[in-house]
Amino acid sequence: RAWMDADFRRQLSARRERVEDAFEFEGRKVGRGSYGQVFKTKPRSCADAPAGDYALKQIEGSGLSMSACREIALLRELKHPNVISLKQVYLAHETRQIWLLFDYAEHDLWRMINFHASAKKCNSQVSLPPNFTKSIMHQILCGIHYLHSNWVLHRDLKPANILVMGATSPERGRVKIADLGLARLFHQPLTPLTEIDPVVVTFWYRAPELLLGARHYTKAIDLWAIGCIMAELITDKPLFYCKQEEDIKTSSPYNRDQLERIFSVMGFPSQQDWRDLPHLPKYGDLVRNFGTGQQYARFSLGRHMSRSFGMSETSPEFRLLSRLLAMDPLRRPSAREALEDRYFLEEPRPAADVFNGFDIPYGKRDFISDSSDNKDDLARQQQSQPVHASLQQYQQSHQQALLLQQQQQQLS
Ligand SMILES: C[C@H](O)c1c(Cl)cncc1-c1cnc2c(c1)CCCN2C(N)=O
Asked: pLDDT (tens digit, 9 = 90+) per residue, 115-138?
């Protein structure tokens, strides 16, 4: 620092644009997680940013951590319609805070799926286009195909990281893959030892080879997570839901309960299914805990999906799902091969707006007050939003639309 004379530094800091000068974010916090916290902001009139909503993500901690640096470096290079685009980086030198500016996405699959699950419980139907799941899946695969062809792995795909642009955005209904904070270029899979995330890190989307100690992340690991997301979009339930013991601080990647859940849905992998299984580091633990897996002999994905959802094992939807959820990573399709699957070629075709012009039934994100920073409030806040409110709102507006339509029909 000595080489930068004081006067020059004073000039620099005087000229540096401060995030608080450019954006209004007081009381506009919408979320908080392992990544830090996120605000829904608008540019102040003096800022030169185009009008519209932006997401300001304040990175947890201070200084340029390795993962923050990696996320920034990667995001600046990446540009694809289905990958969230980084607009600006602000470094607050006084507090050594890092702020990332993104286009704002009003929705995400985590809240959307919670909404549908709650609507089902209330026995109230929500009307969505028939190609809803297909459109979302197509755009996730397009985004991941772009990342993988740039040798970037996401490594933490889950519904909360799949955003969808809202009605006020010019990109209404477009999917954006977000939170590449954990993205790596083929590095060792670090199990987040002490995830500061109030919602303990879930293993529900973690590929079986990771749970068995695989030492390298691969593209196939992202494709497994996409298969889990597809099943969840279809049934509104996490496919490999496994209760979270509080504070999993284990350092071992081996998670017996999660593996048990996978086998009780998929069946136990035979030598034929997964030739390399015995070579995985935790194979010994597997044999000790599960033996030859006879107790899972009658389970299979087809049985699970037909019993829990009446899905036919011969449908193109099921066939793509079972390819993505191949236990052996070598048998999973690449993103490109998945995009070429018959599922996307047959009617109805995937749409650019996943809502396909239908009303968007989900409410906007709620602002959270700072008092809810302590854990139990936050855990409650993380629960599915008070759906009934936005559900009633949706039904009222929907009823009006239906009435209007009927009146018009009578008139015509
Ligand atoms: C930073 C974040 O990825 C993000 C971005 Cl880059 C752009 N537009 C919205 C968001 C965003 C806001 N809030 C939440 C989410 C996403 C996920 C689910 C959790 N969440 C809440 N508010 O709970």
From this structure: 999 999 999 989 999 999 999 999
Question: What digits encode the pLDDT tens for the residues 23-51?
Answer: 999 999 999 876 789 999 999 988 888 99
Q: Which residues have C-beta atoms less than 6 Å from ligand 1?
A: 30-31, 38, 55, 57, 84, 102, 104-105, 108, 110, 160, 163, 178-179, 365
Residues known to be catalytic: 156
For residue 108, the cross-strand partners are 163
Exposure b/e, 283-307, CB count within 10 A at least 16 = b: eebbeeebeebeebeebebbebbee
| Three-class DSSP labels, 30-77 | EEEECCEEEEEEEECCCCCCCCCCEEEEEECCCCCCHHHHHHHHHHHH
* C-alpha dihedral sign at 301, 306, 310, 315: positive
User: Is pLDDT of 201 > 90?
Assistant: no
d(CA 26, CA 274): 53
Predicted TM-score of the model (pTM): 0.88
Q: Which of 108, 112, 164, 199 to mutate to test the pocket of ligand 1 (most atoms within 8 A of CB)?
A: 108
Cα–Cα distance measured from residue 260 to residue 290, given in angstroms and rounded to the nearest whole number = 8
∠ CA 370-182-188 to the nearest 5 degrees?
A: 145
In what helix (H) or strand (E) does residue 108 lie, and over which residues does it extend? strand 107-108
Q: Whose CA is nearest to atom 18 of ligand 1?
A: 160
